[in-house]
Amino acid sequence: MTRELWSIDARDPRTVWAALVPALEGTGAAILPHPASPSGLPETVPANVAVVVETSGSTGRPKRVMLSAEALKASAAASEELLGGSGQWLLAVPAHYIAGINVLVRSHLAGTEPVMMKPNGFSAETFIAAAGELTAGRRFVSFVPVQLARLLESDDAVDILGTFSRILVGGQSIPATLLAAARARGLNVTTTYGSSETSGGCIWDGRALDGVHVRLVDDRIELAGPMLAEGYLNDPRRSAFSFREHDGTRWYRTDDVGEFVDGVLRVRGRADDMIISGGVKVSLAEVETAVRALPGHSEAVVVAAPHPEWGEAPVVVTTSAIDLDTLRQLVTAQLFAAAAPARVMLIDAIPLLGTGKPDRLALASLVLK
């Protein structure tokens, strides 16, 4: 059996909210929220699919992830349990990505009306204005790291953030210095890890939500639980590769590598971010974490570039000048010599995707010029 699939204009999140509720309850069509008119969209999807999410495509071709109402509700219920109950949400991230959809699903299950910011023009001023519309005592918000960093620059915004019961930050790795700065100012920040394929963040502060299972297979992170997607729309080959059954349990094979440290999952970076430099395996994500800990470089990005002697080497792209020798000494001390960046590229602004994530494909092309 199938159901209709509608493309929903996500530039106004209220349009997504209006279509999402009947999609979840089975009284309306399945939806694909999108900021533009997507191409190649089929008329129908499997009957149990409620929402199709198009991934950001930050490192390759975007995928269309099929999510059932049951998966989205399971994720929301587990989140609410860890939050200690329901409350009112402020939507500060785009409604066509899973983090935004989750805010709306949680609001629906809680029976509360979310306050919705428009996806463009995020600033301390627009955040403060939107937060002023919240009416509940318990309030929550979800950010990407760059949004939180921007708000920490405003004392007024920090005062408002202090009234939130919980602040979720995910979508990409959060610099340790940013997390420490937020917590030092008394903000209740929780880091989240997950993807569209897991109905959003299912690992909070390195620990799995209720019902979620985590394992490492050759260092690759695999996740299981009721929040898993049905697969990829019209892409059975990719679905079969990413979603696999083992001993009666269906697992999602992520693109990330990780490790457990005292029972807490530590995400080391993407599997395709691992390079071999001078015969040594180097994680670009770990180099990036070390660089971002430096004052003024919290948004720096590390990408790979060919090297005539080592094969490949890390290159730091940043908006603030830094001495290369000093940087190499720092990374060598924190990691090892092969991880030291070969060069620094200074640019005016880091190109971003709609989610606020760095456009790594654009940066990788830039360092090759």
From TrEMBL:
Residues 286-357 form the AMP-binding enzyme C-terminal domain. One of its GO terms (molecular function) is acid-thiol ligase activity. InterPro entries: AMP-bd_C, AMP-bd_C_sf, AMP-dep_synth/lig_dom, ANL_N_sf, ATP-dep_AMP-bd_enzyme. The keyword Ligase applies. SUPFAM superfamilies: Acetyl-CoA synthetase-like. Keywords: Ligase. It comes from the Bacteria. Residues 42-209 form the AMP-dependent synthetase/ligase domain. This is O-succinylbenzoic acid--CoA ligase.
